[in-house]
Amino acid sequence: MSRRDRLRNPAPWLSDGSTSGYAFRSKRKGDARKRRFGILDAAVVLVVLVAVWSRTPVGALAELAVASITGAPTDDVRPLIAYFDTGTGEAEALTELIAELDPAELAPSDGLPEPWRTAAHVVLSRHAPVEARRALHEAQQEDPEATWLTLLDDRYDGDPTAVLEGLVVESAQRDRAIARALAAGEAHPERWDAHRGYLPLRDRLAGDKVVGQVLALGTALDLTWPVDRPHRISSGWGERHHPVLKTRKFHNGVDLAVPTGTPILAAQAGTVRVGEDRVSGRYVVIDHGHGVRTSYCHLDRIGVTKGQQVKPGDRIGLSGNTGRSTGPHLHFVVRIGRETVDPERLRRAKRRGEPSG
């Protein structure tokens, strides 16, 4: 068969010379392409839905609605504005760092104070970015005995944020970012969370690894205990056999066995959010800044209002037995970002940092 005949009749096996076989193959290829693009489209839609759920106020509303319908606790649902807050971006890493806190006491100094001293030691000893390591190397050229803490002590001028930021951001860049934050109307442009968005991307990411992590960890280490009366820990943080559900569940806080009506105190200064659901009962959440929040659940009475500013030790309510509870107690939760951490571990670390005598 000549080339011209093959072009005229691409399916010579058909007696009528039709091209039905060719059309059939083309249709199969088209169906395969449609299936392939259908899977790709579904994957894109799934990624978008996950992003909307976890990173936008729409997702926050959906999360709150689901929690309300299913009876899940709502004290861990972030406020809508928090979805616009970049925070430290290293919540999971901070959780690991807290678990690795060295029990050895740090040498006291007139330089960088606690709790930033312990926080800086932990963060920089394990996750120092290249820019920070370069600063330490330069200091060791002059003093071979230089360490992260001696370097920070020598540079400390009363502002923990400035000395930490100086490890990874040039002073000119920092001054420019602060000026832009001031021009944008920020009340405290010198704060890391106020001017970090005006830094170049590379400086911002390096700063999050040092400044953001140290400030978050230091804020968590600075928390005080919410009950000032003798009590016992009836259930600790971590895996446990749930007393109501009768199954293994992760316990995201600690239960303090105290009688109904015991005064509950703010663990640190912050902004209040209040609520009530079938699991947590009446609860208070305090945002302490730098991604750190504390929750106080099963309260009998709430003594603060939404948006109220509280100071450390302020009475925020009375303990009770509301919600899913087997007896009067306070369920106390500490979060860094969206991860919970062990409040008892933080309490022990804080006691180590306090001066003896």
In short:
The protein is α+β, with helices and mostly antiparallel strands and 357 residues long. Helix content is 43%, strand content 18%. Strands 1, 4, 5, 6, 7, 8, 9, 10, 11 and 12 form a ten-stranded antiparallel β-sheet that branches.
Offer a few descriptive terms:
globular, Glucose Permease (Domain IIA), two-stranded antiparallel sheet
Description:
- The protein has 357 residues and is of the alpha+beta class.
- The chain has 3 domains: 53 residues; 135 residues, no CATH class; 122 residues, Distorted Sandwich (Glucose Permease (Domain IIA)).
- It is built from 12 helices and 12 strands.
- The strands form 2 sheets. Strands 1, 4, 5, 6, 7, 8, 9, 10, 11 and 12 form a 10-stranded antiparallel β-sheet that branches. Strands 2-3 form a two-stranded antiparallel ribbon.
- A hairpin with a 2-residue loop joins β11 and β12.
- α2 crosses α3 and α5 crosses α11.
- The N and C termini lie far apart (105 Å).
